[in-house]
Amino acid sequence: MADAQRAQQQRQDTQRQFEARADDQRRQLQAQQDQNAQNADAARRGSRMTADERRDLRRQINEAGVDIYKNAPRR
């Protein structure tokens, strides 16, 4: 009888280990999918600038251009 109980216990332990590994794999897959979705959102967001960002960039370019070309060489 004790052998049958041990065998039963081993089967249950093996089943629990299998289920735990499957749960871990599902969690990892879900986390990876979430990360991929976040990366895709960030890439999509990063490709377009807001109106304020465009305005600031134009201002910065104009300011830098004034400094660079302030004393243009005379011909």
Q: Structural class of the secondary structure composition?
A: mainly alpha
Total domains: 1
Largest sheet: none
Beta-strand content estimate: under 5%
Rg value: 31 Å
* End-to-end separation: 106 Å
Order of helices and strands: HH
Tally the helices: what do you get?
2
Q: What percent of the residues sit in helical stretches (DSSP H or I)?
A: over 70%
Low-pLDDT sequence parts: none
Shape: rod-shaped
Mean pLDDT: 83
Strands, total number? 0
Organism: Massilia rubra
Region (Disordered): 1-75
Protein name: DUF4148 domain-containing protein
Biased composition (Basic and acidic residues): 13-27, 50-61
Structure description:
This protein has one domain (2-68). It is built from two helices and no strands. The chain has helices at residues 2-46, 51-68. The chain is rod-shaped. The N and C termini lie far apart (106 Å).
Salient structural properties:
75 residues, mainly alpha, 2 helices, 84% helix, 0% strand
Give a quick precis of the structure.
The protein has one domain. Helices cover 84% and strands 0% of the residues.
